[in-house]
Design goal:
- The protein is an alpha+beta fold and 119 residues long.
- The protein has one domain (10-110): Structural Genomics Hypothetical 15.5 Kd Protein In mrcA-pckA Intergenic Region, Chain A (Roll).
- Helices cover 20% and strands 26% of the residues.
- It contains four helices and seven strands; from the N terminus they run ααβααββββββ.
- It has helices at 3-6, 15-18, 25-31, 38-46, and strands at 22-24, 50-52, 55-56, 62-64, 68-72, 76-82, 99-106.
- Helix 3 (25-31) packs across helix 4 (38-46).
- The protein is globular and about 70 Å long.
- 13% of the residues are buried.
Length: 119
C-alpha cells in the first residue's frame, strides 16, 4: 500500500473563514431593501452618494458588522449602522434586523428640485 492510502489528510478551514462575515456594499443595499435595484446602488456609489465610515466607496467594497453607511438622496440623508451581514442563501431576512438607523435627516424644501418652481 502506498502512503496516501493509509493517511487521509483533512483540510479544516479556520473559524473566521468558514462563515461569510462580509458582503459587497451594493448587495447589502439591495438585500436590506434600502435601494430597490443593485444597478441603482452601483450608480449611487459611483456618484459619491454612498459613504462607508465617512469615505466615498466603490460598489464592490466589502462591508461588515459595525460599519456606518451614509446614503445621500435628493431630499434626505440617512445614516445607519450595520448590525448583521446577511448570508447569501437567506434572502428573506427582515430588514430591521440588518441595520440600525442612526439618523434620518430631511433636506430643506428649497434644495428639493421637485418642489421648485422652474418657470
Amino acid at each position: 500500500m502506498t502512503f496516501a492510502a493509509h493517511h487521509r489528510f483533512v483540510i479544516v478551514k479556520p473559524f473566521f473563514l468558514r462563515y461569510n462575515n462580509f458582503v459587497r456594499l451594493d448587495l447589502f443595499l439591495k438585500t436590506s431593501r434600502l435601494i430597490k435595484r443593485r444597478t441603482i446602488a452601483r450608480e449611487m456609489c459611483d456618484n459619491g452618494m454612498v459613504l462607508v465610515n465617512g469615505s466615498k466607496t466603490k460598489p464592490a467594497r466589502e462591508v461588515k458588522q459595525h460599519d456606518v453607511v451614509t446614503l445621500k438622496f435628493s431630499s434626505r440623508v440617512i445614516e445607519l449602522e450595520i448590525i448583521v451581514v446577511p448570508a447569501p442563501s437567506s434572502k428573506k431576512t427582515p430588514s430591521e434586523e440588518l441595520y440600525r438607523m442612526k439618523s434620518d435627516m430631511r433636506l430643506p424644501k428649497e434644495n428639493d428640485l421637485w418642489n421648485k418652481n422652474l418657470s
